[in-house]
Amino acid sequence: MKDKKINERESLELISEMISRTKQGIAMKQDYNRFLLYGYAVVIVALVLWLLIRVTGDGRFMFGWFALFLPYLWHMVADSRKEKHVVTYVQSMVENVWKVIGSLFGLTILALLCVGWGMGRIDFALMMPLSLIYAGIGMAMTGLVIRESGFVWTPLVGLGVAAYMLVASPVNDWNLLFGASFLVFMVIPVHVARNKVK
Question: Would you tell me how many other CB atoms lie within 10 Å of the CB of residue 145?
Fold first, then answer.
């Protein structure tokens, strides 16, 4: 491949175009769709599980949280079918933040399974506060990268709820607290950001 020399005007146009693409790529609605999908999925699952456990008294419905792997699998398939495009540094940073956060989710599930199996009792109760912390960190880091203050400060709500959960006994109302936290620090800030884009 041959390197092409460009003049000063072409260089400035290229830089301007890359800045514009970066802003559009991060700010466009479809980039926020993933946050909305996960945010609303958490809120819906939280409400459904809270209701099922409240009506039946059967705590085994908590395994319904594993339904959140469905949006993840759907995105994996959808991403594999997308045509490849140029990825900006900012987009790459946001993707890498969420790769780390996703790895934390997976490793925590694996750790809880291994420790629980060794102790003779597998309890995923810790996943709720840890998930709030992980997702909150991911949202805050995303907000810092894309300079969206609503993404940076609202995860403090999730952190407060996670701290409460870590010192309180697990109860069915955790489902409501968990869902409400995602509504506050993921769904609402994304809608605010989308309105700014308009």
Answer: 18
Condensed to tens digits (0 to 9), the pLDDT of residues 104-119 reads: 999 999 998 999 888 8
User: Among 11-20, 141-150, 157-166, which is the least confidently predicted range?
Assistant: 11-20
Per DSSP, the three-state class of 82 is: coil
Helices within the chain (DSSP H only): 8-27, 29-56, 69-81, 89-119, 127-146, 149-153, 155-167, 173-182, 188-197
Q: Which two tokens stand for residue 136?
A: 């909150």
CA distances from 139 to 35, 142, 143, 155 (A): 9, 5, 6, 7
Distances in whole angstroms, Cα of residue 76 to Cα of each of 20, 23, 81, 132, 177: 27, 24, 9, 22, 28
Interior/surface letters 154-176, b for 16+ CB within 10 angstroms, e for the rest: bbebbbebbeebeeeeeebebbb
